[in-house]
Specification:
alpha/beta, Rossmann fold, 6-stranded parallel β-sheet, 8 helices
Length: 317
């Protein structure tokens, strides 16, 4: 049984993440963290969840705080804090202002919860994972980001919908940036265990259009309802469960690349990684030529943005 802390719980995504995480049987305690000045909201949110847990008949403990020190003994810390995206702004445009939130948070975390695993959700998540890694001093395997796990699930859902097959029959991955330079791995995509290139059923799919739909999915949802909540919230809970249950699943998340894919490294980016209670371990794979070129471009883009953000922050620990 484990404690999970959610930093940024007063936001819509943070609030729903509490709900999604509370369904994980390995979680015995949830801490909801928010900024000073939101004490009333946090207390009300905690009370609302206490009553919902009673209705569900579970004895998960929930507490709230505006002090990060309350996160001590957390097995997993989820960071959703920061300024949200708006329809007219890209994830990368948020980089510096959200880095100003993430850097001091990460700097404190090593002293408070040194054995925790940190899951970054704050956008742009690839850059924010690098910021958290630098300022926290955590080992690389103890920090990862939601990244292209969410994009992979979006593509999976679209393929299932277009082909009218059960979503569990679709296996696909997107690597690279959680953003415009994402890279679909069609070479690793299968339906019912059959490679997509060998499946007549899949011949009617407009693959480039599917990827474009994935790219704008978050923007469309934000424009129509104000924020993305349920998709990312459930994706976060999946990753938390994968850690706590020591599942050793291979999922595509933002990790620190160190040459596992064609020698590309020195960047936090979406890549396949084995996830368990000890941490996140990137998996070496070989890409087709077009995939490798696109992944290299994506890594260069993220690396350049990360460098700019670090320079503005002064890159001091």
């Amino acid at each position: 049984m484990a404690k999970v802390a959610i930093f940024g719980a007063t936001g819509r995504l943070g609030s729903y993440t509490v709900h999604a995480v509370s369904h994980i049987p390995h979680v015995s305690e949830i801490l909801i963290l928010g900024r000073k000045g939101r004490e009333d909201y946090l207390e009300g949110l905690a009370r609302d969840y206490i009553e919902s847990f009673a209705a569900r008949g579970i004895d998960t403990t929930i507490d709230w705080s505006t002090d990060l020190e309350a996160a001590e003994r957390s097995a997993v810390v989820v960071c959703t804090a920061g300024n949200p995206r708006t329809p007219d702004r890209t994830r990368l445009e948020l980089a510096y202002e959200n880095a100003m939130v993430v850097a001091p948070f990460a700097r404190q975390l090593l002293e408070i919860a040194p054995r925790s695993i940190l899951l970054m959700v704050t956008n742009p998540v690839d850059v924010m994972t690098s910021v958290a890694l630098h300022y926290s001093g955590f080992r690389m395997e103890r920090i990862f980001g939601l990244g292209t796990h969410l994009d992979s699930m979006r593509l999976k859902a679209l393929i299932a919908e277009k082909l009218n097959v059960h979503v569990s029959e679709v296996h696909t991955r997107i690597i690279g940036e959680h953003g415009d330079s994402m890279v679909p791995l069609w070479s690793a995509t299968s339906i019912g265990g059959i490679p997509i290139k060998n499946l007549e059923l899949a011949s009617r799919l407009d693959l480039p259009r599917l990827v474009e739909q994935v790219k704008i999915s978050g923007e469309v949802i934000i424009r129509k309802k104000g924020s993305t909540v349920y998709g990312p919230g459930e994706a976060i809970a999946t990753l938390v469960r994968t850690v706590l249950a020591n599942e050793n699943r291979i999922l595509t998340v933002t990790s620190h690349a160190d040459g596992e894919i064609h020698g590309i490294g020195d960047v936090c980016i979406g890549i396949p990684a084995r996830i368990n209670r000890k941490g996140i371990y990137p998996v070496s794979i070989h890409l087709e030529e077009q995939e490798m070129e696109a992944f290299t471009e994506s890594a260069n883009k993220i690396r350049a943005c990360t460098r700019q953000v670090m320079e503005r922050l002064g890159a001091r620990k």
